[in-house]
Amino acid sequence: LRLYQELAKEKKNMFYSPLSLSSALSMLFCGASGSTASEMRQVLGFEIAKIADDKVKVCFQLLMSTLEKVPESYTLSNANVVFGQKGFSIKEDFKSLLSESFKAMILEVDFQNESGKAVQLANDWVKEKTNGMIPQLLDSLDPSTVMVLLNAVYFKGFWMHRFNEHSTFQQNFYNKGLEDGAKMVQMMHQKESFPFADCGTYKALQLPYKGKEIAMLILLPNERNGLEDLERSLSSDFIKQLQTKMRTQDVNVTLPKFRLEYSKSMKADFQSLGMNAVFCPGANFDGITDSRNLLVSEIVHKAVIEVNEEGSEAAAATAVVMMLCSLRFDPDFIVDHPFLFFIYNTKTNLILFTGRVDEL
């Protein structure tokens, strides 16, 4: 949630995968020591969740094996890979940890002499793992790069109750919550039984995907311009709190068809959250290599989602680039103004994707 609030300061559309970011950065954390690891513990939430350092790899091992057993009703994959500079010494223990806990292989490339080819290999890997939704994550890489940790998350789900295409028509969406921001967009409609809660200043609706484990949770402020107030009011366990308030009932749903594409360098955002040592000379990654001058030069994240009558398709990819330095009635739920949404596992509360729609 702290990362969300940091990103939301830009006050624009946003879509990212907490799962993708935490997977990529947790691979890095498992090779960090000292103050470098301490800062990462705080920012990644391991401290507040009371997860011991040696249990992080166990948690991801469980997560990866769980994701391998998803039902046929939807597609969900979380893939990891590490590209390393030819001749750069990576400790065998770290290689084993990546393989066992993150199902990540290490591929040797030549950043120094063939950085363009390395970029192409990385982008091809991301394109394949996101089913073509993200054809390019990296534009270029510095020849002094020695390691790139990549993660790609892909989800495709079909609504449990799909929207009828004949009930989709043009309607106003109030961009930025403003009357003069009104724009005609394709709006989907249906009346169906869904988990719903009226929380006073906002309403919450849960749209399940086939298979029931994954759902889209939409938070809609009552006021057209109420998005920022809603964001400020969210606590870290808001999903758990909402689940106690939600009741399944008939709801008249109006939801826009939309596609979001979001690409961002996350370095400054993680620095604002207190993760600084990883980017500085003197960063301690002695679990990865004996080299004392390894640091993170960039964290790049890209995510795409498409929502239509049938369901949703979403993908996200993260690259961590390392270099040697240098109420009971039928309520209306009309999504015609800025809103938040989360795609998450309803059994574990694991958030796969987080989105903020400010304008369409």
TrEMBL record:
<feature type="domain" description="Serpin">
    <location>
        <begin position="1"/>
        <end position="360"/>
    </location>
</feature>
<dbReference type="GO" id="GO:0004867">
    <property type="term" value="F:serine-type endopeptidase inhibitor activity"/>
</dbReference>
<dbReference type="InterPro" id="IPR036186">
    <property type="entry name" value="Serpin_sf"/>
</dbReference>
<dbReference type="InterPro" id="IPR042178">
    <property type="entry name" value="Serpin_sf_1"/>
</dbReference>
<comment type="similarity">
    <text>Belongs to the serpin family.</text>
</comment>
<keyword id="KW-0646">Protease inhibitor</keyword>
<dbReference type="InterPro" id="IPR023796">
    <property type="entry name" value="Serpin_dom"/>
</dbReference>
<keyword id="KW-0722">Serine protease inhibitor</keyword>
<dbReference type="GO" id="GO:0005615">
    <property type="term" value="C:extracellular space"/>
</dbReference>
<dbReference type="InterPro" id="IPR042185">
    <property type="entry name" value="Serpin_sf_2"/>
</dbReference>
<protein>
    <submittedName>
        <fullName>Putative serpin-like protein</fullName>
    </submittedName>
</protein>
<dbReference type="InterPro" id="IPR023795">
    <property type="entry name" value="Serpin_CS"/>
</dbReference>
<dbReference type="Pfam" id="PF00079">
    <property type="entry name" value="Serpin"/>
</dbReference>
<dbReference type="InterPro" id="IPR000215">
    <property type="entry name" value="Serpin_fam"/>
</dbReference>
